Amino acid sequence: MVVTHPERVLYPELGITKGDVAEYYRAVMEWFLPGVVDRPTSVLRFPDGIGEQGFFQKHPMRGLSHAGHVRLREESGKWAEYLCPNDASSVIGLVQFGTIEFHPWGARANSLEEPDYLVFDLDPGQGVSWRDIVDAARQMKRRLGKVGLDSFVRTTGGKGLHVVLPLHAACTWDDAKHFVQGFARTLANEQPDRFIAKAAMDERGGKIFIDYLRNSRGATSVASYSLRARAGATVATPLRWQDLAKCKGPGDFTIDTVPRRLARLRGDPWEGFTTLRQDLKQALHAYAEAD
Ligand code: ATP
Ligand code: MN
Ligand code: MN
Q1: Torsion-angle region of residue 98: left (phi > 0), alpha (psi -120 to 50) or beta?
Q2: What is the pLDDT of residues 99-119, one digit of tens each?
Q3: Of 65, 179, 183, 257, which residue is the least packed, with the fewest Cβ within 10 Å?
Q4: Ligand 1 pocket: which residues have CB below 6 Å?
Q5: pTM of the entire structure?
Q6: Which atom from ligand 1 is nearest to the alpha carbon of 228?
């Protein structure tokens, strides 16, 4: 897949070009692909660079028919074609069209009614420090562990962290919602100075919003190893829990540092993520009634 106009600048402050973005995705491809292949995936495109307005796109674009798509029933009941990358050439094809970020569903195209992972998106309000977010993520890991759920952590490349838990397919979106909502509300009730489980912006000051709303049919969250269209050209980066101790913030992981990190890594920071089969039985029992 050839990228035309590789010299086009997409990050004006850093001078990062479309060619650099393609080179980044080529360098991390084997790590990136498992997070997007065979999943409906929205892309965030910035054909004129991140200094100009970008846009989310869910549907295939003209001129990119080979990039992979799936026909699915939307929440409204309407059927539509969705982008659904199937290989490296899909990814580079989307970069050719100005894509910087990739946002998959938490379900596979062949099993759209069954999420295969859940995401707790920790969104810090004003005045919350990076250390506070790290502590909150660790606390969630411990709490999830108590109901038998192993979880994984990644930087988003933005302000927060994602705590991600793989599931057994066969969990329904309904179960997913009952659990994540119950869990988020329980934490917010117990520690109201620290957590909030409501989206209200004006109540977030000093607290961490546990955004559980990524876990519904059709919702997306950023893919692991996706570049972000943010200052610093940061990357959503899976970490080992112990890596959080030396992580100073999202700026540690960028278009420059992540390919080097991956070249040095021994083993997958999320080892076991794709083979772990967890169900929500115990977790639903403990938290669903908090609804
Ligand atoms: P941060 O750590 O800065 O919060 P984040 O990736 O978690 O980074 P959020 O703003 O918390 O960002 O989450 C927004 C999520 O909403 C994205 O991950 C994206 O997948 C999803 N989303 C779906 N549709 C849209 C849209 N049209 N515009 C923006 N985000 C969208
Ligand atoms: Mn977030
Ligand atoms: Mn959010």
Answers
A1: left
A2: 999 999 999 999 999 999 999
A3: 65
A4: 56, 103, 121, 123, 156, 158-160, 211, 220-222
A5: 0.96
A6: 6
